[in-house]
Amino acid sequence: xxxxxxxxxxxxxLTDDPELRFTPSGAAMVKxxxxxxxxxxxxxxxxxxxxxxxxxxxxxxxxxxxxxxETLHKGTRVVVTGRLRQFDWTTDNDEKRSMLxxxxxxxxxxxxxxxxxxxxxxxxxxxxxxxxAWQVGGASPAAQQGSDAPPF
Length: 152
Prior knowledge:
With 152 residues, the protein is mainly beta. The protein is built from 2 helices and 8 strands, in the order ββββββαββα. It has a domain at 1-36 and 50-115: CATH 2.40.50.140.
């Protein structure tokens, strides 16, 4: 992570099954939304109350995208870490739009109310051209998008 990036960790439930797609160069990309609803104890009523839900659109790339698709499904409670990004674009009607989204660095099922079995995958021993030993593939996600529109 470079200076000036906004790291974020969210815990919530997947609102739908992750959507796997491939860029023209063949890189895997998955999109999904995590809903996070805070709960607070109301001392007056003696009950728990749900707050306002937040829906965070997320994108993961390459091997991580494929692992998300194979492992996680609608309703799964997850812990997601990544970098907060703002996407700006103009619609066909010349309306300026923007949205915040999470570019995922890591994700896993929450073990607070569930169990999981971990299966390690074999990784290439040679680092990728970018110097990132965990990266599979070549170009960065931004270079692979090929558009000013957000990847969401």
